[in-house]
Amino acid sequence: MIVEVTKGIKILQNAVIQQDKRLAKAMTGDGSFHITLLVMKLNDDEVNIGIDALLELKPFIEEILQGKHLILPFEGVDTFGNQVGFVKLAEGDHMNPLLEIAEAAKRTFQEKGILAGESRSFKPHLTFMKLSQVPWLRKAGVKKIDPKFYEKFISHRFGEEMLHRIDLCSMLKKKQSNGYYHCESSIVIGDKNGGEPDDAELVKLSKRLVENAVLKAVQQYLEETQNKHKPGDGSTVKTEEADRNGTDNDNRK
């Protein structure tokens, strides 16, 4: 997230905290700001399938964007049921391609057998606070986000962000040192780095190649082990032993 947008959200968060210091723990860390395209539950075996789906998604996104940059402007504040506070994505021509990308992502993962997406409509946003992060707030009498806390930011322009990367993140694993979520894999959109993958992408790609090589070696070993113990093979061994015994008996005669 660029400095301008992050700085604006931090000002918003501080304004809310000044009105109720108990809400400080409910604020989203500035390293975690993101737009969620879709949510899914993956077990360990499905993570690699998810990584494959993410890689297959890239050409679909490039086809949607047709070589153009997708600029996302953020303006205004709203809540989900007065429980989750978020900065809104402004309306405009950028909405259609973003919605197409979200649909392409959902379709690509579902075709891989992964149940992805939610029944509710896609509403891109940047979460800046969430009451559920602090369970004791409800016991302390804080049951909703008071609209007066953010009324001065209702029409505030927070800045623009260019879509340049899509990550497959884990919401459960330990976050990175910069506050961002644990990232299983990423795809870079556009030509932000001169067409060359960044260091993080290279590390993830190398890790995945090693994991796939190890997995392939283990599978090959298991297949070879199973083949040695197949009933047909066992019968063959026994027959050879019988032939040898017969030959030995003939030699003894």
TrEMBL record:
<dbReference type="GO" id="GO:0034237">
    <property type="term" value="F:protein kinase A regulatory subunit binding"/>
</dbReference>
<dbReference type="Pfam" id="PF10470">
    <property type="entry name" value="AKAP7_RIRII_bdg"/>
</dbReference>
<feature type="region of interest" description="Disordered">
    <location>
        <begin position="222"/>
        <end position="253"/>
    </location>
</feature>
<dbReference type="GO" id="GO:0016301">
    <property type="term" value="F:kinase activity"/>
</dbReference>
<dbReference type="GO" id="GO:0005634">
    <property type="term" value="C:nucleus"/>
</dbReference>
<feature type="compositionally biased region" description="Basic and acidic residues">
    <location>
        <begin position="225"/>
        <end position="253"/>
    </location>
</feature>
<keyword id="KW-0539">Nucleus</keyword>
<dbReference type="InterPro" id="IPR019510">
    <property type="entry name" value="AKAP7-like_phosphoesterase"/>
</dbReference>
<dbReference type="InterPro" id="IPR052641">
    <property type="entry name" value="AKAP7_isoform_gamma"/>
</dbReference>
<keyword id="KW-0963">Cytoplasm</keyword>
<comment type="subunit">
    <text>Binds cAMP-dependent protein kinase (PKA). Interacts with PRKCA; only the cytoplasmic form is capable of interacting with PRKCA.</text>
</comment>
<feature type="domain" description="A-kinase anchor protein 7 RI-RII subunit-binding">
    <location>
        <begin position="195"/>
        <end position="251"/>
    </location>
</feature>
<dbReference type="GO" id="GO:0005829">
    <property type="term" value="C:cytosol"/>
</dbReference>
<dbReference type="InterPro" id="IPR009097">
    <property type="entry name" value="Cyclic_Pdiesterase"/>
</dbReference>
<protein>
    <submittedName>
        <fullName>A-kinase anchoring protein 7</fullName>
    </submittedName>
</protein>
<feature type="domain" description="A-kinase anchor protein 7-like phosphoesterase">
    <location>
        <begin position="4"/>
        <end position="188"/>
    </location>
</feature>
<dbReference type="GO" id="GO:0010738">
    <property type="term" value="P:regulation of protein kinase A signaling"/>
</dbReference>
<dbReference type="InterPro" id="IPR019511">
    <property type="entry name" value="AKAP7_RI-RII-bd_dom"/>
</dbReference>
<keyword id="KW-0418">Kinase</keyword>
<dbReference type="Pfam" id="PF10469">
    <property type="entry name" value="AKAP7_NLS"/>
</dbReference>
<keyword id="KW-0808">Transferase</keyword>
